[in-house]
Structure of Protein kinase domain-containing protein:
Amino acid sequence: MDKLAAGNVGRDQSWGWNMSSDPCNDKWIGVSCDTLLKSVKKVVLDELNLTGVIDIGFACKASSLSVLSLHSNNVVGSISEEIGNCKHLTHLYVSGNQISGHLPESLKQLSNLKRFDISNNNFSGEVPDISQISGLITFFAQNNQLTGEVPNLDFSHLLQLNISNNNFSGPIPDVKGRFSADSFSGNPGLCGELVSKPCPPTPPSKRKSNHSSIKRFFIYSGYAVLGLIVVLFVAFKLVSKMKPKDDKEAVETNTSRRSYKTSTTTSNESKIAENKSEYSISSVESGVALSSLVVLTSPTGQGLRFEDLLRAPAELLGKGKHGSLYKVMLDNGVTTLAVKRIKDWSVDSEEFKRRMKRLDQTRHPSVLPSVAFYCSQQEKLLVYEYQPNGSLFRLLHGSQSGQAFGWESRLNVAAIVGEALAFMHEELGEDRIAHGNLKSTNILFNQNMDPCISEYGLMVFQTQDLSFDFQSSKDALDHAAPTYGSFKADIYGFGVILLELLTGKPVHTNGIDLAQWVHSVVTEEWTVEVFDKALISQGASEERLLNLLQIALKCINPNPYERPNMNQVAVMISTLKGEEDRSSSHP
């Protein structure tokens, strides 16, 4: 503070920021701490007419710092390499200052960074490669003097981008249709279709020609290897058909007996695995199952075999109308998986396989990917990494009843899940793959307590699940494409999750539907009565609670055509979270 204020700001005793007081217990101006008042989480010093020098090294000594905001001051200096020490930093706002110099290479070390705003400063030089920061959703760098090519960002995840009025040059990369020319205006050196300026052709170099020759060599070699594999496969099938029928039946019988024996033996060995044989026995169909497990690209599944699942101790976690869920322990408990068993599903095997492979190609850090799957006429199995910290439903409605789950954490869950769902809807829109069964029990928490969406794409949309007021929208739905209804049903499900976060109440209580109850309370103008009393007692902003409630009500609109799409919902929640992050804790 001594460096930032530089003696130009009148600081009285109420500011704190001295060596005789504690930043958390004594409520220093602009400082927010964790619920135990043990560590600093945010430093927000916006619009305080600070005219000194920014010292990132000092700021990053607070190792738990997640938000640093110096918006709209007159701070000078530069961002040093020490910014890399802020390992937990998620939000950095330094817009509207006089900060200069190059952006440090250590920015790429901020793996948790989500929002980055350096607009309206005097930064120069090239932007370092920060494409590995997979969770970045805001990048504002307009009105600086930055040069080089357009920053290498993960445009598929970005929600907000503005690099206008700089000195960037070269072609504009594929921004996935997310941003307009306004995000790039004021950079005369940029070219591309987005700014209606064709890029000059790149002359081929000798090095590139050599590279192409090598590439062609490997391509043709690959064709040769592939042809050899096909020939060997055909030969193998011919030899297999030449085996005597009696031998084949003997193998199948022995395989079936061995699988049954394995299941019952394991059941006797482990009390935990009391119910595990339910999926093990019924999934073995004439010995074919051992070769029917399809392992996807997740590293966890490498080397996984169907017989490993059959022999492993398993615990039945729960049953629902769509199937059962098991916890399976492999390698003496070293690896823990979750196996979802689906029965009586209307999707045929080929469509199921297509969906699983397409989902494997569409990855988002906040959507739990499948490790492997098994598909037969009778049933289908999905294998996931086991998430140890339970579901959002348990966190809100379990024994703790959400008491330790504060407003900032709930808003963070809403923002992360909303952004992930928006991404999946956009990527899988043409494939007509929505979530199909979005609810708080399908929002899980990993070891770091980060939320992720599970079971995406497993269920096919059913019209009776669309909303609580199905009859009022039935006529409209009769004329809507199935894919339209499924994505709109996801938005309804997300709106109900928002209501659970706001109210702390489950979807159904003593026969009362949560969405109907909220509508009735709001209609009678008792809106404040909707919110979880724990949030009010913790000092949550009533204005932002109301704003999130309005977003939820848009999502659960009885008419699906009037619901916003998930991109719109994600942007609304992102804006709301930005306001929350900027709010300072004035005494």
